Amino acid sequence: MVKICCIGAGYVGGPTMAVIALKCPLIEVVVVDISVSRITAWNSEQLPIYEPGLDEVVKQCRGKNLFFSFDVERHVSEADIIFVSVNTPTKTQGLGAGKAADLTYWESAARMIADVSKSDKIVVEKSTVPVKTAEAIEKILTHNSKGIKFQILSNPEFLAEGTAIEDLFSPDRVLIGGRETPDGQKAIKALKAVYAHWVPEERIICTNLWSAELSKLAANAFLAQRISSVNAMSALCEATGADVSQVAHAVGKDTRIGAKFLNASVGFGGSCFQKDILNLVYICECNGLPEVANYWKQVIKVNDYQKNRFVNRIVSSMFNTVSGKKIAVLGFAFKKDTGDTRETPAIDVCKGLIDDKAKLSIYDPQVTEDQIQRDLTLNKFDWDHPAHLQPLSPASKKDITVVWNAYEATKDAHGICILTEWDEFKNLDFQKIYNNMQKPAFLFDGRNVVNPQKLRDIGFIVYSIGKPLDPWIKDLPAVA
């Protein structure tokens, strides 16, 4: 029986290995992690991450050919193929701070693999890594190999949270990069055979190592660029009276462009986009390409501009101050159908409002109070480091309450901010909400989930990103 071990039981490792186990019943799959609490959760009824369809897949395979363990070294030693899905956070200090990827955890994993291996291994990069990481990992493994052969493959993930299981069941493509040597090609063939259990051969793309590594960064950069492009256009729509949804629909009908990732919003979030673009910027700078680096920097700048613009709209609309006012925040996750809050725009929006002394009442159906408090007190990029390296008990923000009901969040509020496009927010009883709010009642829709005119008919003053402006807001400044 082929044995697969995945180091890292997070958003990528857990779901990916669960689907491999489901689709390949004759392969033993073990997910390992040094976090006892995380592994315990994977073995419980309450999984550590929320992802539609994940529960069913895990429960079908767990205990049969899918296992979760914190006995890392034993399972790494026994595996034929080792997926490495550890964090590659942005460096917070030293050379490349704020841009370069921190490969500390990758290097530790590589050294551990070399120490415990007693047979030849295929080591698969599953984390998003900078170009040429495979070369560094190869050097560590070969210099500590004790005669054991290691082949390094790059197999980046292209999952979208909220649809990860669907994406794994029917991927656009599976990308495998390896060395252009007989042993390298043999390793590619071995990994390809795993995916071929359910992925059509024409969707499995094989490249050299560097192309696979760069393709992941390039894909995320292109997607983020589309979001920043439509968000930049949303500001112009507001200034001219155009409707960004209509503009995006017209542009998306161009078959050369397509309709995906053209939804204007308060900004992009998630664990990859900002981190990968900063990484790309650093790689460009290191390779003497400052013009290219500056081009990609602008994608991040527009994203930050959009979040700042949203906060400024709120403050200027509400008589230029939110001090002491209750603002209901509906949604904290970076997108619907996930509890993930990494780099969510809600963090910057909430911090901006808190800086103006607002009182926030936050509701998200999947994010806990502890997570929200942690996100609003951690320094930038700290979220991507292991929990034991983060502050043990970050000081709670006294101006924040977290509730488990949208109606409770909005009761007696002066304004509402919608920051995640959860489906339930489209179907709220806004008349009931309006009746229980302070007047004038403001609603700021950062995801364009409500019908502005219907809410104006109720009595709300409404701001929707990129939509024709409410008469109340029309002559107020968009930026500070």
From TrEMBL:
Binding residues annotated for NAD(+), in chain numbering: 8-13, 33, 38, 86-90, 127-128, 161, 272-275, 342
GO BP, sorted A to Z: glycosaminoglycan biosynthetic process; UDP-glucuronate biosynthetic process
Class in the EC hierarchy, top level: oxidoreductase
Pfam family, one: UDPG_MGDP_dh_C
The protein's Enzyme Commission number: 1.1.1.22
Domain UDP-glucose/GDP-mannose dehydrogenase C-terminal: 328-452
Entry protein name: UDP-glucose 6-dehydrogenase
Organism classification: Eukaryota, Viridiplantae, Streptophyta, Embryophyta, Tracheophyta
Organism, as annotated: Heracleum sosnowskyi
PANTHER family named among the record's database cross-references: UDP-GLUCOSE 6-DEHYDROGENASE, UDP-GLUCOSE DEHYDROGENASE/UDP-MANNAC DEHYDROGENASE
